[in-house]
Amino acid sequence: MTLEELYGKMGGNYEHAKQIMKMDKMIDKYVRKLKNSGVGDALSAAGETMDANGLFESAHALKGVCANLGLDDLAAAAEEITEEFRPGNSRKLTDAEVKAKISAVIEKYQNTLACIAEYEVGA
Predict the structure, then answer these.
(1) What is the total count of domains within the chain?
(2) From CA 66, how far away is CA 75, in angstroms rounded?
(3) In which domain, by residue range, is 49 found?
(4) Residues with Cβ < 8 Å from 9, sequence gap 6 or more?
(5) DSSP, res 8
(6) Is residue 37 packed enough to be buried (19+ CB in 10 Å), middle (13-18) or exposed (0-12)?
(7) Burial class (CB in 10 A: 0-12, 13-18, 19+), 71
(8) Total H helices, total E strands in the chain
(9) What whole-number distance in Å separates Cα of residue 54 and Cα of residue 58?
């Protein structure tokens, strides 16, 4: 599987990643690092306790990593949580709604990691 095929399978924006990273070698390097970043685990843990600072920090980190990698859908989903818990913002969602959004983000994240694992086997 090529990087372009991987991005198609993940629903990512390969051209966006290429604009930011410039070279396939860099995209490959950082897309592989996503699985060891721990951002998904941090988001899940913060969601269990509804730790506002932890939710902001972990969602913000996930959003940034995904935005740089051209994983636009995942970045947008993480951004919703980021903005909900951004210091100074008023909460708009209930805890139950936040937990549902976290579950959706984690599911997208896990699907993305599964695609990357498949890519690594074929690379």
Answers:
(1) 1
(2) 5
(3) 3-122
(4) 1, 115, 118
(5) H
(6) middle
(7) buried
(8) 7, 0
(9) 6
> Rounded to an integer, what distance in angstroms lies between the CA atom of residue 74 and that of residue 107?
10
| Phi-psi group of 66: left, alpha or beta (phi > 0 → left; psi -120 to 50 → alpha; rest → beta) | alpha
Pull the structure tokens for residue 29. 């390097």
Cα 64–67–71 angle (5° rounding)?
130
> For residue 75, what are the CA distances in angstroms to 60, 61, 78, 102, 120?
9, 10, 5, 12, 22
Q: Encode pLDDT of 25-34 as tens digits.
A: 999 999 999 9
For residues 33 and 31, give the distance between their C-alpha atoms in angstroms, rounded to a whole number.
5
**Which CATH number goes with the domain that contains 77?**
1.20.120.160
pTM of this structure? 0.89
In tens, the pLDDT along 55-108 reads 999 999 999 999 999 999 999 999 999 999 999 999 999 999 999 999 999 999
Q: In whole angstroms, what is the distance from residue 78 CA to residue 85 CA?
A: 11
